[in-house]
Every structure is written in C-alpha cells, then in structure tokens.
C-alpha cells in the first residue's frame, strides 16, 4: 500500500465511520498531503506502508520543525500533528504496523482563542434580516431563499447549533409549532443531543416550509437554489453579504451565532454544565472559554458605569 492509498483509506474511514465534518476531512487531507510530501524528500522516496511503519518520533519532529521554518503557525502545526496521530493510529489498528511512540511527541502550546460573540441586538438583527440580501431581480426563488436563510440563522442563534449540524437536518427533523419539546441533533463523532427549541425558531422554520409545499420527510430541510442540500459556503456568503450591507462586525459569521447563544445564556445566569450539554461539547474546559467572554463583558460594563473607572 502506498502512502497516498493509506491516506485515502483513512480519510474515507474518517468520513464514513467517524462521520467527521467535511471541513475536517478536507483539512486533514491537506495536512497528511503535506506530511507525505515532506517524507518523500526526508526519506528519499515516496513513502509506502513499510516506510510509515518505520517512522520514528524524530521524523515527526523534523516535519514539525520544517513546517515551523516555512512559516506555519502553532495552531496549524498542532492541527497537523493531530491529523498525523490519527492517521498513524488508524494504520496501526487496521494495517498491522507497530504503533509509534506518539506520546513522546509534544505539539506546540496553544492559547485557546476567546470566542467572539455578537451583542444580542446584532445576533437578532442578523437572524431576522439576512434574507434582505436576496435580490428579487437576481435570485431564482427570492422569497423562499430569504425565508430559508432567516430560518437557518434563527435556528443557529436560537439553538446554538454548528452550521454543519443544522444543514444535515431533513424535513422530518424540522421543529414546527406544536411539535415535540426539543430537536435531536447529531454532532461531532455522531454524538446525539436534545436541544430545546424556542417558539420563534419553530415559527421561522414553519414560514420557510410554507414556501415549499409538497416537501417530503426525506428531503434536506435547507435547500440550495438547485434543489440539493444547502452548501455551507452559500450560507456563509449570505451572512457575509448581509453583515457588509448592515455594517455588522467582520466576526458576524454563522459560528459567531453559536458563540452568541452560549455567551448570552451564560450572561443570563445559565449553568455552565447545562450550556456544555446544549452545545454538545465533550469537555467542560471547552465550554469554560465562554466565561472569559462574559468576564470581558462585565469589565467593559464596569468601565463605562463606575465613577472611578478612569
């Protein structure tokens, strides 16, 4: 088996068995391509399964050093190391090679970025008015596409979903007025969670589906202009176009609506464990990043209001 064949097999497993997001599979594919390309020069030949089995920790450190010398940042190198770890563990388990001592390899230390949330007013505006970017003179189905985007972004802010989670929903999953108490979402690693759905979210989705008479349960909930499942890039462009039209900050993205959901819940007194469950975070430490956002907001309020803040 060549290194390229092993890479293709791993990526297929990642997508099919682990149900990793398409963006994750694509990024890991690039990272492993960089790694295999480095090994070709480092080892003097295209690496095959035997060469991969004979790798040492020093070879991986040499790759990370080469990436650093080429200007790759700490976050990029940490992601690439994670991709390589997963790849080599997959080969050890499925191809009979001896596992490499990966525990001895330390990646670059990362300072987790503080999530950038929108204000409540900005998030509500983005969700409610994003449909304005669909020009009736240019869009194929402007009313339906506008209602679709409003429903999608209202869902992201109202339920804290990742955009991939929202776009994977089918019509049968749609939370409609009078329906069940929650929405079952399949997140990273195929883990499922139940999230409550606000009446405003249910109504936005109902308004959108009213413009799709005859929609069957197995169809994607959010459709693109050509009738296929909506592409994340198209949804991201809609919000990007609207934020420029409305003068919203550059970090007004679909994922910022998820950050806003968590930040506003925390600011309203929600329990951190409950927010962890709603977001589908495997570790509480991931959710704890939002306490930094809330603390920053409190400090800004204090500076504005306290008479001795200056």
UniProtKB/TrEMBL annotation:
Domain Core-binding (CB): 1-92
Location within or outside the cell: Cytoplasm
SUPFAM superfamilies xrefs: DNA breaking-rejoining enzymes (SSF56349), lambda integrase-like, N-terminal domain (SSF47823)
GO MF terms, alphabetically ordered: DNA binding; tyrosine-based site-specific recombinase activity
Assigned keywords, A-Z: Cell cycle, Cell division, Chromosome partition, Cytoplasm, DNA integration, DNA recombination, DNA-binding
GO cellular component: cytoplasm
Active site (record annotation): 162, 188, 255, 258, 281, 290 (o-(3'-phospho-dna)-tyrosine intermediate)
GO biological process: cell division; chromosome segregation; DNA transposition
Domain Tyr recombinase: 113-303
Alphabetized InterPro entries for the sequence: CB, DNA_brk_join_enz, Integrase-like_cat_sf, Integrase_catalytic, Integrase_recombinase_N, Integrase_SAM-like_N, Tyrosine_recombinase_XerC/XerD, Tyrosine_recombinase_XerCD
Residue ranges that the Swiss-Prot or TrEMBL entry lists as coiled coil: none
DNA-binding listed as a keyword: yes
The protein's role, per its UniProt record: Site-specific tyrosine recombinase, which acts by catalyzing the cutting and rejoining of the recombining DNA molecules. The XerC-XerD complex is essential to convert dimers of the bacterial chromosome into monomers to permit their segregation at cell division. It also contributes to the segregational stability of plasmids.
Family of the protein in this entry: Belongs to the 'phage' integrase family. XerC subfamily.
Complex formation: Forms a cyclic heterotetrameric complex composed of two molecules of XerC and two molecules of XerD.
Protein name per Swiss-Prot or TrEMBL: Tyrosine recombinase XerC
Organism: Dankookia rubra
The gene coding this protein: xerC
């Amino acid at each position: 088996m060549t290194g390229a064949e092993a890479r293709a097999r791993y990526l297929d497993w990642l997508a099919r068995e682990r149900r990793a997001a398409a963006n994750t599979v694509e990024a890991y594919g690039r990272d492993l391509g960089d790694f295999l390309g480095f090994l070709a020069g480092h080892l003097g030949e295209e690496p095959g399964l035997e060469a991969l089995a004979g790798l040492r920790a020093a070879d991986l450190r040499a790759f990370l050093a080469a990436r650093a010398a080429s200007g790759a940042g700490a976050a990029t190198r940490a992601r690439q190391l994670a991709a390589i770890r997963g790849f080599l563990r997959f080969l050890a388990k499925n191809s009979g090679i001896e596992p490499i001592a990966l525990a001895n390899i330390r990646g670059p230390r990362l300072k987790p970025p503080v999530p950038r949330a929108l204000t409540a007013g900005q998030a509500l505006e983005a969700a409610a008015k994003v449909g304005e970017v669909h020009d009736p003179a240019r869009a194929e189905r402007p009313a339906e596409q506008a209602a679709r985007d409003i429903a999608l972004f209202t869902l992201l802010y109202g339920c804290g979903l990742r955009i991939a989670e929202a776009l994977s929903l089918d019509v049968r999953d749609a939370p409609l007025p009078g329906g069940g108490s929650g929405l079952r979402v399949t997140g990273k690693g195929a883990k499922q969670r139940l999230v409550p759905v606000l009446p405003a979210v249910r109504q936005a989705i109902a308004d959108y589906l009213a413009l799709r008479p005859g929609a069957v349960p197995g169809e994607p909930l959010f459709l693109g202009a050509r009738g296929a499942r909506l592409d994340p890039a198209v949804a991201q462009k809609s919000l990007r176009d609207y934020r420029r039209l409305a003068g919203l900050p550059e970090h007004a993205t679909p994922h910022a609506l998820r950050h806003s959901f968590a930040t506003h819940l925390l600011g309203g007194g929600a329990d951190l464990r409950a927010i962890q469950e709603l977001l589908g975070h495997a570790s509480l430490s991931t959710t704890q990043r939002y306490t930094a956002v809330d603390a920053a907001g409190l400090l800004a309020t204090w500076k504005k209001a306290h008479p001795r803040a200056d």
